[in-house]
Amino acid sequence: MSSNRSASEIDEEAADWAARVDAHGLDVEHDPQVQAWLRGDARRAGALLRAQAAISFLDRGRALANVAPAVDTVVAERPSRRTLIVGAGGAAAAALVGGIGLWTARPQRLDTRLGEIRRVPLADGSLVAINTKTALEVAMKPKSRRVVLKEGEAWFQVAKDPDRPFVVAAGPVRVRAVGTAFSVRRGDEAGAGVDVMVTEGVVETWIEGGPTPRRRLSAGSKIVLVSAVSPTVAESPSEIERSLAWRNGEIALDGESLEQAARLFNRYNNRQIVIDDPVLARERFVGLFQTNEPESFAAAVAATLGAVVSDDERTIRIARARIS
Amino acid sequence: MKQSRAEIVAFVGGQILPHEADVRAWLRRSGSLAPDIDDVIQETYCRLAGLESVAQIANGRAYFFRTARNIAIEKIRRARIVRIDCVTEIDALNVVDDEPSPERVVAGRRELGRVQQLIEGLPERCRQIFTLRRIHGLSQKEIAARLGVTENVVETQSARGLRLILRALSEATVQDQSEVGKAHELQSVRKRD
Fold it and tell me: Which of A104, A145, B89, B128 has its CA 20 to 30 A from that of A306?
């Protein structure tokens, strides 16, 4: 290394080059001037990559501004042909609809399979993140935006449009928003209730045909709505963020029992975690795991507790190690 | 198979750079000095720049922590006098990358908000240009015409904005730091009732 410039000086030069490359669409690998600069110091290649990466990082902000929605898909399994078409065609469909000036009359159907997690931009600029084994229908009308959550869980980041309320229906439960972000989850069993968690802004919830008055919920609150039972509201922003770790394909544990953790993993995978020992099942854990890697979770549990894991195609069995 | 530069840049922008503040905070906790940290970070990017493909990197965050740790250890070993506690300290921290805590998840989730914050934190002219270029996707020429300035001014301001953003990205916020601190304490902790 010929130059004794500091890392931060190189970073500043690299920013200038990255801005130039971006402005003129230069080809880094073949542009003689860029190459000459890079050859001057071995560290420059890293600094230029970092500066260009920062530009790319900032471009992710476009998704926020709803200008050019990007389709960002996290899949643990191969998506079905149909979901692929919907996913890739989302932006094109939006452009088409906008161009003709008509709203799609037929609702758009979005499904995920076991273990699949998708982010899909909607025609109005909103974004929906769909968790494992979920089915929903989206109907965009001139005066309303309506989503029916048939099963599973989804998180919505709603584009502001005061003239077109955004309403999510989950059974008899309704959640209405103007410009905000929230998630709705239907319980697995019939009559299990609907969880609503608000991450930004304010939403209004009610039970269609029910006696309870409408309730307003602000960011950081969670409500569980079960028909005929008065809803409970809890405030816990960090808890909500943790419950929504699935949007990144992750499960965040903070003191859950092994039994609860196993149930969380089993929502995403064909291979089910089974715990044989009731004492083991009550052990509590903290950690972050991938939804589609129950094996590494089991391995971490085994290492921490001195348990043994035996697995076959369908199950991952965690048991207490025998004392020899 | 060799990947295009654009693919590698996009990967680094999405999977590596957002974790830089955390890696720096972690190096600071292990007792490294600021100029050394700058060098370790820069060398990590250099190694990435030397790769033909990043397809084999499954977890960018883990890769970043692991590579930075290896480089830091190499640096310590290259130094004439090796402080044993330095090596062991960095060695002891190697669990960080595999099991980030819920707190860190929250930090990651704020990523997009952070992009907006970064742009909003720029001086007025820079911010205007950055918004037009990055958010609205206008070309340098279009921006110059719209703002009634020369293309040269747009380019200079873009470079200036990028410098400021790069600096901001390497500085963890106070909040981030406390989160990372907590995260470390929570590392592989098993709760008992």
Answer: B89
Predicted model pTM = 0.43
Domain ranges (residues) in chain A: 7-59, 68-242, 249-320
CATH no. of A68-242: 2.60.120.1440
Closest-CA residue in chain A for B157?
Answer: A19
Question: Would you state the pLDDT for residue A12?
Answer: 87
List chain A residues with CB under 8 Å of B42. 7, 10-11, 43, 46-47, 50
Q: What angle do CA A138, A141, A146 make, to 5 degrees?
A: 35
- Nearest Cα residue in chain A from B189: A286
Amino acid at A146: R
Which residues 6+ apart lie within 8 Å of A239 measured at CB?
A222
CA distance A64 to chain B (A): 7
Please list, in sequence order, all residues whose beta carbon lies within 8 angstroms of the beta carbon of residue A85, skipping any fewer than 6 positions away.
Answer: none
Interface of B with A in 51-90 (CB under 8 A): none
Determine the topology of domain A249-320 in CATH. Phage tail protein beta-alpha-beta fold (3.55.50)
